[in-house]
Amino acid sequence: MRISVIGCGYLGATHAACLAELGHDVLGVETDPRQRALLASGELPFHEPGLDTLLATHVASGRLRFTDSLADAAAHADLHFLCVGTPQRRDGRGADLAQVDGAVEALAVHLDRPSYVVGKSTVPVGTAARLARRVAELAPAGADAELVWNPEFLREGHAVEDTLRPDRVVIGVDTHRPEGEGLAGKVLRELYSPLEDAGVPVLVTDLPTAELVKVSANAFLATKVSFVNAVAEVCDAAGADVVALTEALGHDVRIGNRFLSPGIGFGGGCLPKDVRAFGHRAGELGVDSMADLLGVVDDVNLRQRSRTVAAATAMLGGSVTRARIGVWGAAFKPGSDDVRDSPALAVASALHARGASVAVYDPAARETGRRMAPDLDHVGSALEAARGADLLLHLTEWPEFAAADPVAVGAAVRRPLLLDGRTTLDPAPWRAAGWTVRGLGRR
Question: Are 359 and 391 in contact (CB under 8 A)?
Fold first, then answer.
């Protein structure tokens, strides 16, 4: 198929390259000239394993091209994916839909033949129905320009796998149209037929259900993370061990052991803002129980950062002033250079603000971390971050850190004190090497 992808940031660049990998002819629309130039040369402006190869391959083949013209996109394709950002509003109340509205308004006026506008951005429920009316009003093709919603479920660090081998594909269509699922559902099913043939479930729903699937999935995951972190706080108060406790919980098939690892909490550009936006929208709809629940989930998550700072301060005798602290990790998760709402950087910055000298190392996020937190010392290796440290913090669970030699690291630090903020390091070899190891919720 001939496809356009509007907005070629993290989501859009991934979707465009993966659609090209599936054999489609893709035109990406990106207004940022620097980012567009990088993509057009086959270079990725961010870190995502495996995506750089797909991008370079399909730019070279001509199957993937980039422009800044929506008129060109409308001329090229009849299937247009909206992949623009929906950041949290500055007042914290819901999602900022300016980019989505702007893209729809600018594209629709060029749609002069039957076509489909496919939303992938995460939006508050009710947005798709409003945008569908706007597309029909503005498009010269009228009702033949149809809006569909096809939410994304990407995990940073696994975006290629999640696009080409997803858990499910959800297609939301306007079921009030006379043809019901009609051509829109059929066209999207055809697009994703290689995935469906490989056994991926393809679910066709109405528009509001499709909008709610993504935010509900994120809200459930966030609730699970915050629940285990609240349990870790109870373990601290009761003298229990949260690692042993979560191992026992994970054997219950109704619960499972995924995302039951306590730590400094979730971050990134999606989960925190989606939880807040969903809670805000639920409140607007009068569903106060969901709004209250997600408010507590968010509060518990943010509290993990202050708990980590407090634990670090306690390990240094009650004050971090003039202490040197080494931090392993800046990205909000391994496999990414994304530092948006990163718990690791938040903790590092809070300790710096309290008078500590903080050296941070991240395998991928050194430059993005420096731009986000320029007051910190961003160094080039794990050993350099540890050198001369009074305390070492493990805050992003990169495999490199799990493989570190406690003896070699111990020779670099001033004091062998380790705070494992992700509860993923094996404390036994560290303690055997003379380290004092602490973790939230651990005895």
Answer: no
